[in-house]
Backbone:
């Protein structure tokens, strides 16, 4: 169904935008039980029609995601140099979007070297080990949408587009896992319920293949870290949701800017929202429940909510997202337009 797919494109990119805009005021916070109530009221208020006041601003997550989408729209033969140029242009036109501390060095070097070798600056990060930040994962949703019918190409493009800024295998595989999760949510009929265990098992199978094919030879003890994390996701989903469990999840699955400590947490947030057994989040709307719950886990709230939102939106489509809430976010119309152009490019 063409209309459904188009709605899912919008849903996923808007999901990414809303998670970023609504999560960013809480980035870096430890969320107490009292603050979970504040977040509940904050989300209740966002559903009010014609809410006045300033828009909620997007951050680096959306700034980079829209440039990934533009590359796919502009260049059917994926042009990574073009992507690198768009990242750099976007960064220097609006540098105060809350970028990661070290990725800025990559942008500077790319500009200075006139994009001679677009992968070299990223390889040099952290004494040659490369960044494992979640900056690759936070912007990957357009790749999952564009390659909705070509899984192998999707995996390849997810890796190569991430490596412009992130070369550590944890950074790359985190982005690939996020991409697979959005892709899987996209292919799921919104009229049929997702079974969290099945969803996780399928993800586990797929990321295992990716992690086994790409051993970086660094002699890590844990050779399939994301596969192991997904087993933890499944484990936590089997436990009744309560405040102390949220703390354990934040500690053990993680809520930091490391891809390893945030992508699995985003998946967990979406799955927990599907299970619909969260005592601190009160709403019938699965999309809202996903991003609101992701934010209550604290830490890298904009990015974890952005990634979870991209999954929920890809599953449910645009109709599931409250219009009043969406209109509160800076760039709402721009993202809808971008989703439509990406859709047109993807089905051509
Ligand atoms: N930058 C932030 N948030 C923190 C500051 C803003 C906040 N409002 C506040 O001050 O309160 N958010 C954005 O950054 C994340 C994405 O970052 P990205 O693109 O991955 O950047 P980078 O610089 O490559 O990595 C981020 C940090 O991770 C650590 N790190 C990464 N690789 C490492 C390695 N190999 N060894 C050691 N450390 C490594 C470093 O601390 C990096 O600075 C998103 O959350 C986005 O929203
Ligand atoms: Mg951000
Ligand atoms: Mg491996
Ligand atoms: Mg963040």
Residues:
């Amino acid at each position: 169904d063409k209309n459904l797919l188009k709605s899912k494109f919008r849903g996923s990119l808007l999901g990414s935008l809303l998670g970023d805009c609504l999560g960013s005021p809480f980035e870096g916070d430890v969320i107490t039980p009292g603050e979970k109530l504040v977040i509940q009221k904050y989300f209740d208020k966002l559903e009010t029609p014609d809410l006045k006041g300033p828009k909620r601003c997007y951050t680096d997550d959306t700034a980079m995601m829209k440039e990934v989408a533009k590359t796919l729209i502009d260049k059917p033969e994926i042009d990574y140099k073009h992507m690198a140029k768009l990242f750099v242009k976007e960064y220097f036109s609006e540098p105060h979007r809350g970028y990661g501390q070290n990725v800025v060095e990559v942008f500077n070097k790319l500009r200075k070297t006139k994009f001679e070798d677009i992968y070299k600056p990223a390889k040099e990060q952290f004494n040659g080990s490369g960044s494992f930040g979640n900056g690759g994962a936070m912007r990957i949703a357009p790749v999952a949408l564009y390659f909705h019918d070509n899984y192998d190409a999707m995996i390849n493009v997810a890796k190569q587009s991430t490596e412009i800024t992130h070369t550590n295998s944890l950074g790359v595989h985190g982005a690939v896992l996020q991409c697979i999760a959005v892709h899987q949510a996209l292919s799921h009929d919104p009229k049929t319920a997702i079974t969290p265990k099945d969803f996780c098992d399928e993800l586990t199978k797929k990321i295992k293949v990716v992690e086994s094919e790409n051993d970086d030879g660094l002699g890590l003890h844990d050779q399939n870290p994301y596969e192991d994390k997904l087993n933890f996701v499944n484990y936590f989903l089997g436990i009744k949701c309560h405040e102390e469990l949220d703390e354990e999840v934040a500690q053990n699955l993680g809520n930091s800017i490391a891809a390893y400590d945030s992508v699995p947490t985003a998946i967990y947030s979406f799955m927990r929202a599907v299970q619909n057994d969260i005592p601190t989040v009160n709403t019938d709307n699965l999309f809202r429940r996903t991003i609101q719950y992701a934010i209550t886990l604290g830490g890298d709230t904009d990015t974890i909510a952005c990634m979870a939102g991209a999954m929920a939106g890809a599953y449910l489509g645009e109709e599931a997202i409250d219009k009043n809430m969406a209109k509160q976010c800076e760039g709402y119309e721009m993202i809808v337009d971008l989703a439509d152009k990406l859709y047109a490019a993807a089905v051509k």
